[in-house]
Amino acid sequence: VLHLLTPVFLRRGYTVLRYNSRGVGSSSGRATLRGEGEVADLGEVVQWGVGQLPGEAERVVLVGYSHGSLITSRQPPLPHTPTSHLLISYPLSVSHWLTLFSSRTYTSALLALCHATAGDVLAVYGDRDNFSGVAALDKWAGELRAAAAEGGSARVRTELVRGADHFWGGEVGERLAGIVDEWLEER
């Protein structure tokens, strides 16, 4: 999914930094049981990446897919740089397992992000997600939009893609790329 979206970001002039979480692929380390290490790692990667840019970043977009969307949802906006969060296939129904029953911490952080003045979130999910039922995801999406409405100034958009499962293969992957491209154009 991240490989699919990289060209979309590059065409829009973004610098792209992709990494694997600890213990995934050829990365070192071990996954932490509650994801706290991964949350800290992402924060460090973001700070390092922003520091590598030749000038000031105009905007930072944090993208998380599946388990990565849980981790991304815990990252607050950067203090002096507009920050957007793109969450794809948020693993709602299995988050308690992925966070060793700490899913409330992730839910609270995400709702706070959607409520925050600086919040800018796009959550995309499919109606055939392999792990989370569409009814639960629709309810979750409504909660994100309600948190934004309550806060009054966060930008929160949720997109249900018909026919999409958790993995975004084929034609639905192209629709995902189109949704992200349109969203980036609005930034």
TrEMBL record:
Question: Which residue range or ranges hold the Xaa-Pro dipeptidyl-peptidase-like domain?
Answer: 9-70
**Annotated Gene Ontology MF terms?**
hydrolase activity
PANTHER family per record? AB HYDROLASE-1 DOMAIN-CONTAINING PROTEIN, ALPHA/BETA-HYDROLASES SUPERFAMILY PROTEIN
Q: What is this protein called?
A: Xaa-Pro dipeptidyl-peptidase-like domain-containing protein
Q: Which organism is it from?
A: Calocera cornea HHB12733
